[in-house]
Amino acid sequence: MAQPADVFISYSREDKDKVLDLATRLRAAGVTVWIDQGGIDGATLWGEEIVNALEQSKVLLLAITASAARSHNVAKEVVLVSERKGQILPVHLEPTTIPAGLKYPLAGIQHIEYYNGDVEENFRTVLRSLERAGVKIGQAQVAKATGAGDEQGSRAPAPAAHGADAGIEPGALAVLPFDNISPDQETDYFSDGLTEELIARLSLISEIELVSRWASMQYKGRAQDVRGIGSELGARYIVGGSVRRFQDSVRITVQLVDVAKNRQIWGNTYKGKLDDIFDIQEQVAQQIVEALKLKLTFSEKVSLTKRQTVNAQAYDLYLRGQDYLYRLTKRSVEYAIQLFEKAIELDPRYAAAYAGCSCAYGQMFQWFSREERYRDKAHELSFKALMYDSNLPEAYTAMALSYFIWRRLDEAAASGRKAIELDPDDFIAYWTLGRIHLTNGELEQAVELFKRVIELRPSFYVAYSDLKQSYEGLGRMDEAATEGRHLLDLLPNYLLQNPDDSRARMFYAVTLAELGRKEEAMREGSMALELSPGDTVMLYNGTCLYSRLGETRRAIETLRQAIAGGYENFGWMKHDSDLDPIRGDPEFVELMAGR
To answer: 421: number of CA atoms within 13 Å, CB side?
Structure first.
């Protein structure tokens, strides 16, 4: 009887030669392998020996080919491991479409295209993936596979300043935005993305009390007075650093500081190519955990090394897309869609890129154009994001927005709450929930949610408008006026940087109207409508402006155009305080009849 081993290889008899070659290479690297050399499909019984080997292995390496995809026994092995929440490493030996029966158990798992590109590099990727899953690899092979000692590789961790403590005192940890010291300042999206990725990884560790990423990100570009920042954030430990990127080369410096003792606990510098960025991210997170002397559970160790993609170019495109998405101009959202779609083209299993693209299509429908194709794409892509990673917060955020624009408010709320459960700092999920409550007339709940959005993302001007509207609906006019002043402070500078943002310009016009600055409001409103001719959402916003200015006939006519063009958010209209001045007009009553 064959002995159980760390890696169980599941394959089809028709691929025996290719699979045995891979198994031989793994054994030469010091990996213990269990494989039915008769060929699983040729086995007369899917018996006790195979089940025992599966249950005692650390990883099921699934050798994917067209014939393996058709194999019932291969499917049974995958399902058995999936049901006991074991680890699966899908390795494609040839281009293969995953059949429906395997899509669910393989959803959210990173695949390796062994057949595509440099075989040696692909084999090293297999080894690294196995090692992250707890499989022991021969040390010489690990060094060879990861490039240890290579001039382009990362250095070993620097010793702690003044010697490491025998024990680390408890306290909150804050990760400050990495300084972008690249020659091209347009790469800010990259340094910001690395900061957020590190925060996301560390947030998975139960022993770490982590300061909100939005609280930390407010220190971007500010002088790094560590003690002062630590005091403001209530953080005992602070992680900071810098990123220098030039073309395909990356240099990252990171330090961990004990604020109370005013000394560095750990620091390191990492050099490499863009393709090395995932290894660097893992090493930084792991070495911070080691410096803090934390004990990780097995699931936390696995989560710490999880990768959404192994394609560095796709990752770079995703970070660019995120940077553009919530600028919320029509042009920036269109550009975000292009970037996300290119990332998906490079990695068709990239769940986060699907989620980002879904949100971008949802924003296009919600703010700029009521074309049904945008709403359809938002829904389709949110489901694909969940198919590839059922625990991705961004996927539930995308689904919440998708359901919201389909007016399926109960499903939208459930998805939003799930996103917040997975990521308590997801400001877009809070914002979507707030808009659901506002649509339903549940204004007290909406107020609390919009306040949370502003707490997390102070620069997100839309939330101030929503909060102001909620206060007005509750008759809390002094608080509404305060939010109007906040908008008046934010929008002029924003419009200087984004002069073609018609939505923001209309928000500004409405704010001016509330202050009685009618001529300025009319001028800004006209400019906004000229920037987006025929846009039904902008026509509705124009209705709100004219209503507040007392231009009743103009307001009614603009609303009529919006509805004729396809604007149908009547639940929102019923509770929109901007329309209060025209609610008693007979033509308005007629337009809303039966809605």
So the answer is: 9
Name the nearest CA neighbour of 348 among 553, 522, 116: 116
- The one-character DSSP state at 423 is -
H/E segment holding residue 168? none
Separation between Cα atoms, residue 481 and residue 515, nearest integer Å: 9
Secondary structure (3-state) at 185: helix
Compute CA distances 222 → 258, 259, 499, whole Å: 19, 17, 26
Alpha-carbon distance of 2 to 304, in angstroms, equals: 33
Report whether 369 contacts 87 (CB < 8 A). no
> Which tokens in the block code for residue 193?
């993305």
Percent residues over pLDDT 90 in the chain? 26
CB 191 within 8 A of CB 255: no
d(CA 256, CA 172): 12
> DSSP string spanning 1-56?
-PPP-SEEEE--GGGHHHHHHHHHHHHHTT--EE--TT-GGG-S---HHHHHHHHH
- Helices then strands (H, E): number in the chain? 28, 10
Per-residue pLDDT of 356-399, as tens digits, reads 999 999 999 887 777 889 999 999 999 999 999 988 999 999 99
Evaluate if residue 148 carries a pLDDT over 70: no
What is the chain's Cα-based Rg?
A: 27
Please list, in sequence order, all residues whose beta carbon lies within 8 angstroms of the beta carbon of residue 576, skipping any fewer than 6 positions away.
469, 544
Beta bridge partners, 7, equal 33, 59
Angle (nearest 5°) at CA 289 between 255 and 211: 70
Specify the 3-state DSSP secondary structure of 252: strand
- The sheet that has 33-34: what strands, in order across it? 33-34, 7-10, 59-64, 87-92, 112-113
Three-class SS of residue 253? strand
- Of 578 and 303, the one with more pLDDT: 578
Element (H, E) at 267: strand 263-273
- Tokens describing residue 569: 């958010």
Tokens read off for 574: 């019923």
Check: CB of residue 325 under 8 Å from CB of residue 357: no
Q: How far is CA 29 from the centre of its chain?
A: 35
Closest-CA residue to 434 (of 449, 452, 453): 449
What residue spans of 423-551 are helical by DSSP H?
Answer: 427-439, 443-456, 461-473, 477-497, 502-514, 518-531, 536-548
